[in-house]
Amino acid sequence: MDYFYCAPEKFSKDSLLIDGDEYAHLVHVMRKKEGDEIRVVDGCGTAYDVRLGVLKKHMAHATILNILHSHNEPSLSVTLAIGVLKNPSKFDFLVEKVTELGVKEIIPLTTKRTISKHAKVERWQKLALAAMKQCGRSYLPSIHKLTTLSDLLMRDDHFDYKMIAHEKSNNTMTINNALTKSNASVLILVGPEGGFDDEEFEECIRTGFNQMYFGERRLRTETAAIVATSFILMRTYF
Question: Maximum distance among all alpha carbons in the chain?
Answer without folding.
Answer: 62
